[in-house]
Amino acid sequence: MTDMTEAAATAPKRPGRLAEFWQYFSENRGAVIGMWTFGILVLLALLADVIAPHSATEQFREATLQPPVWQEGGSWTFPLGTDPLGRDMLSRLLYGARFSFFVGMVVVVIAATGGILLGLVAGFAPKWLDTVIMRLMDIILSFPSLLLALVLVAILGPSLLNAMIAISVVLQPHYVRLTRAAVINERTRDYVVSARVAGAKLPRLMFITVLPNCLAPIIVQAALSFSNAILDVAALGFLGMGAQPPTPEWGTMLAEAREFILRAWWVVTLPGLAILITVLSINLMGDGLRDALDPKLKRS
């Protein structure tokens, strides 16, 4: 008995949840690089007022299509050059990051909130209501996401707000299906049955007993939805159905500059690179979150 007590005392302690999460997350080098890159981008967006050398909408007519500083004709006044209206590219990219991250957060919050609620209802609801909800989600998923968002924005009117609403509707079915599947898997487990026997009401079962155990795949989906939202709002902006000029949104910047792609490569390349780096860093971070949060991928 004493030997067993000593062995238990000397056994290594199981790491805390946060330490265990970081252990699995940090094993994915790409995820760590993506996290630091995303963190730097968020910091730049937050400090845009301090870092940006000019206003995002201020026009310098005498310096239209000025090249970046490292090219002949460039100037440190405009480190990344200017666009066709003489606006500073660096300033517009920094302020554009704010719009992109704001859109991503709002879309994820709206889509996840609505999707989780509908998924919980579908998971606990009678068969007929579950069927109605899931068939409605199947109808939404049967349309190409960008095309459906485009149709919704065309109905609501082109603006950044309507683009966010449209993208939220398009992304919502993923959360509904994911939450419903997790709820159906969890509701037959012993702890849920025990809560029912103990007299727990349905709202408590849904939001306190079951939902916390379904969050891991939802968090991963939220990270991927964040990058999809940034891509979709950039695509709608490029098509003229998202943010309207002179808003410094990356997709809108691409649309305004496409006719100058051969004369001034920087006005198209720089916003495109900003979208690429942001989406890639978020997707890499999402892979790390999946590795850290998915029990099936964890080694025993």
Fold and architecture overview:
The chain has 300 residues and is an all-alpha fold. The chain contains 13 helices and no strands. It has helices spanning 2-10, 17-26, 29-46, 48-51, 89-124, 127-141, 145-156, 160-186, 190-197, 202-210, 215-238, 250-257, 266-293. Helix 5 (89-124) packs antiparallel against helix 6, helix 5 packs parallel to helix 8 and helix 6 packs across helix 8. It is elongated. 38% of the residues are buried.
Query: Per CATH, which architecture?
Result: Orthogonal Bundle
Helix content: 55-70%
Which geometry do the CA atoms define? elongated
Radius of gyration over all CA atoms, rounded: 24 Å
Backbone structural class: mainly alpha
Subcellular location: Cell membrane
GO molecular function: dipeptide transmembrane transporter activity
InterPro entries: BP-dependent_transpt_permease (IPR050366), MetI-like (IPR000515), MetI-like_sf (IPR035906), OppC_N (IPR025966)
GO biological process, one term: protein transport
Task: Give the structure's gist in a few sentences.
The chain is mostly helical and about 300 residues long. It has helices at about 1-10, 15-25, 30-45, 50, 90-125, 125-140, 145-155, 160-185, 190-195, 200-210, 215-240, 250-255, 265-295.
